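User: Sequence in, structure out. Go.
Assistant: Echoing your sequence, followed by the structure tokens.
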Amino acid sequence: MNSRLNLLAREVCDNPHPYLAELRRSAPIVQVDPGGIWAVTRYDDAQYVLKSTQLFSSEALRMAMDPEWLGRPNPIAESIIFLDPPKHGRLRTLVSRAFTPATLTQLEPRIRAVARELATRMVEQRKVDFVDAFAMPIPATVIGWFLGLDPSLQRHFKRWSNDIAAIGGARPEDTALMEQCRRTLDEMEQYLQGVLADRRRELGTDMVSDLIRARVDGESLTDQELMGFLFLLLVSGLETTANLLSQSARMFAMHPELLPRLREDRTLIPRFIEETLRLEPTAVATLRTCTQDVTVAGVELPKGSMVLVSLASAARDEDHFPKGDSFILEREGSPSLSFGHGSHFCLGSMLARLEARVALEELVSHVDRLELRTERIDWTPSLTVRGPQTLPVEVFPV
């Protein structure tokens, strides 16, 4: 390549996979734009960076979500995914108590009822935006249950999530987007401060109350840590499941044989979810900072260098995933890195998989096929997450 690849260029955001494939072949660790960050594109190298927390700090990810142009702190930058040991371990111990198998099992019938209602409504309407009609309401409802939030607020969740996710990918010329992100931060923080104040006055049975009660070695979460986690759950909890469900709809549209096959054998749905996560991960990258001079795959990375670990590229690495660009329902082999690796493995992965499985079980029961009603999709402008902002489809009933 004669010039550095810009990961935020429109054509790359629309379809990054051919560009990442070329990097894997010709320059698996190379500087890219914005900012000349080092991109790590092969599976083994990505896994090495993610597990080597002494060599690669999460500081770069925090900096990306807390840029100077915000002019104010971003609470999500203080959440668990942006922290290094030992603080990361303490927080993970506290918040992991909210994602126990027993807690998630209790949610399944409630998620199913919501998914069934949404699928029934989609079939009646026939032409819908899949994101608004199905993919976003499911995680928004679940997060509302978890946090004990007013259901009427769900109409704001998509905008909140999109704006916060866009912070890490805002271009210098995107002044309108920057101002919108600032307003959203103020709005979210003001509301969540009210939620915390209400729970401190009267604890309930929701996750916020549980986190206020939680103690590790006699220590509780600070208000800053609580706010960071609430921001993280509202953003990542929505983006992860909504994008997974939206990408599932794309797979059904591109491979019409899949939907009836899953209807005939629902035990294949978990396999479908894993292959969709591999082929189109919702978290396409994560960022790290070199804590010292380090060599990866023969390339010297100076101390302080920013490193972008391309999870989307690693998931199509032909050394681990033969025919990596193809959807293969029966695929075996290496686990994907879609939910991260090592100490930063996503705490909410079990919840996202549960939501997706139950939602798709209801979808395949009601829908015979899906057809896309657009030739071009507008994707979230971000270095780290990727999902359709809208997905117009026509729904054909069983």
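User: And one key feature?
Assistant: The domain at 10-397 is CATH 1.10.630.10 (Cytochrome p450).
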